[in-house]
User: Fold this.
Amino acid sequence: MTPVKILGIAGSPRKGNTEQLVKLALETAESVGNVVTQFVSLREKPVKPCIADYACGQKGTLEEPCPTIKDDCGNEVMAMMAKADGFIIGAPVYFGGVTAQLKALMDRSMALEFKGMALRNKVAGLLTIAYARNGGQEHTLFDMARWLMLHDMIVVSVGADRPKESIGCYWGGSCTQGFPFPIRSSTQESKKGFQEDVIGINSIKSVAKRVAEMTKIIKAGIANVPAGELAWPLHPTFGVQTDAKK
Ligand SMILES: Cc1cc2nc3c(=O)[nH]c(=O)nc-3n(C[C@H](O)[C@H](O)[C@H](O)COP(=O)(O)O)c2cc1C
Assistant:
């Protein structure tokens, strides 16, 4: 089959742990084979918050999902999302939840929901990092999972390395900034704090492999389901152009 395309999105405002973790996850996904990846950081491609004029519902297109806000990277990032088969999405924990940068993309992505559920049937795995061992990682993973479930996406858990590797979290990749003791967030060292968290790194790699596996299964599987047997028509952007027989 044609390779699956996995988009990594890093939702931190700084060049730190999350960007490196998302890149590590993409490399790991590629190692599964027949996977191509793309990386985007919301630090480099900032997305402004939704202003709730609902113009996306009337005038949005897949190329320009939000007709109102044009002086940011929201439309560019959403257009990338519409073309991906799978996702690895990461955000650091901020006050027990996702960052404002990622929340802005979450809200703006309603434009893709309005475009015929453009993210439906795409696969996603999640990752996060915090200063504290129990600093809100699980809550942050579920913030992201709820967002993607609302888009009818298929959110995977941490993958099957957990019986043999120490993984530390069942819901996605989850790191602590330093291990066994956290590194203070105000230091330069904190920007590579994940490197000491070997258990967290195992969870990042395992969720990445799970995303690669599940994205291929879904893409190949749907290509083999006759259109009349699907509950809803596939979205036109869904990547069914594989060599699998229809
Ligand atoms: C505004 C802000 C809020 C934060 N809130 C939390 C928190 O609730 N729990 C926690 O353990 N760490 C918290 N942190 C620490 C970050 O999650 C941590 O430094 C993380 O490694 C940053 O990821 P990055 O390097 O990708 O930016 C917070 C940091 C900032 C700047």
